[in-house]
């Protein structure tokens, strides 16, 4: 299971939060988590990666188009079949890291 340590932690926190209503994360902790996540991703970029960007423009734009279309189509299907609100349905179909999407979901109330 990908990211099992994060998935397990999220499940335990969700269960405790639902049962007791006692789980709370200060906004500053979310900001720190986003900073750490961004710094980790930023350190993975090399000069060679930046030099390759002009050659990769078309494939990147095509992928972004397909990811966006997939998110809207699958989000609409999720919303209709599972009776989710639009924000939750769209975010559940968004491609991205589990940590980043979870933080975005919390910020948007999904």
From TrEMBL:
Record field: transmembrane: 6-25, 60-81, 87-106
Keyword presence, Transmembrane helix: yes
GO biological process: regulation of gene expression
Domain of life: Bacteria
Keyword Transmembrane attached: yes
GO cellular component: membrane
Annotated InterPro entries: AbrB_fam
Pfam families for this protein: AbrB
Keywords assigned by UniProt, alphabetized: Membrane, Transmembrane, Transmembrane helix
Protein's UniProt name: Putative membrane protein AbrB
Organism name: Enterococcus italicus (strain DSM 15952 / CCUG 50447 / LMG 22039 / TP 1.5)
Taxon lineage: Bacteria, Bacillati, Bacillota, Bacilli, Lactobacillales
């Amino acid at each position: 299971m990908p990211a099992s340590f994060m998935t397990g932690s999220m499940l335990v926190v969700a269960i405790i939060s639902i049962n007791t209503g006692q789980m709370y994360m200060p906004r500053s902790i979310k900001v720190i988590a986003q900073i750490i996540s961004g710094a980790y991703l930023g350190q993975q970029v090399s000069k060679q990666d930046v030099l390759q960007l002009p050659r990769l423009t078309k494939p990147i734009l095509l992928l972004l188009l397909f990811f966006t279309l997939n998110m809207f189509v699958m989000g609409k299907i999720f919303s209709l079949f599972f009776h989710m609100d639009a924000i939750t349905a769209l975010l559940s179909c968004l491609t991205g890291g589990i940590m980043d999407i979870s933080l975005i979901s919390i910020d948007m109330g999904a």
